[in-house]
Amino acid sequence: MVRMMKKTLVSSIVATVIFSSTAIMAAQPMYQTIKDYYGDGPYVGVDLGYGFDNYGDYYDKAATDYAGPLNVQTTLTKKNAGFTFGANAGYYFNRYAGIELNYLRYPDYKLIANYSVDGVSIGGTTRGLEPGALNFMVTGRLPVGPIALFAQLGYGYMFETLSTQNASVGDHNALAAAAGIAYKINKNIGVNVKWIGDFGGKISATNRGAGNFSAITGGVAYYFY
User: Fold this and answer.
1) DSSP SS3 for 173
2) Helix%, strand%, coil% for the chain, nearest 5
3) Residues contacting 173, CB < 8 A, separation 6+
4) Using an 8 Å Cβ cutoff, are 128 and 110 in contact?
5) Which residues sit opposite 105 in a β-bridge?
6) For residues 81 and 127, what is the distance between their CA atoms, to the nearest angstrom?
7) How far apart, in whole angstroms, are the C-alpha atoms of residue 198 and residue 126?
């Protein structure tokens, strides 16, 4: 009789512990679902990376600008890659779609002309541009646990400043696009790697092709949800 009572008591205790543990686990929020990792709400972020400028039309036509007398040889060299930085702010309406406003400062573009006569250098000059872009983009996102693939498309407002004269050479419209992968470190902080670019348009002051800009960046974002 006593042995049976002991068995019943042990069984009751075990059942109580299992039930209590299950209840506690069920009551605690588990950060394990797609919805928990990627929900809806605002976010802000910063980006650093390496970018490229391609002023193809601008470079070609500049050769005539630099042309000197027939006995002067002109050698043009361009520098169109370097450090890129930016910032962004956006809002996700749900796990899959959102909007973003971002600013990206592309690397300086330099066109260097060296003059020589019969192989002897007689000096040179440098023309520099400082390009930047303000982009308004629509974002599509595909979350898989803490990882998400995303793509963006939208409108880009490009502006260039002459670095040697600190004067604008004209703004223009562009097509903005981006694609990348994001990873949530925790509920509020995430990191990402993406490719972003602005394409097309003409510099209004010169009516020359503004070319294409692109960059590979790494970023950190803070999510307010």
Assistant:
1) strand
2) 20, 60, 20
3) 155, 156, 157, 158, 200, 201
4) yes
5) 85, 132
6) 15
7) 25
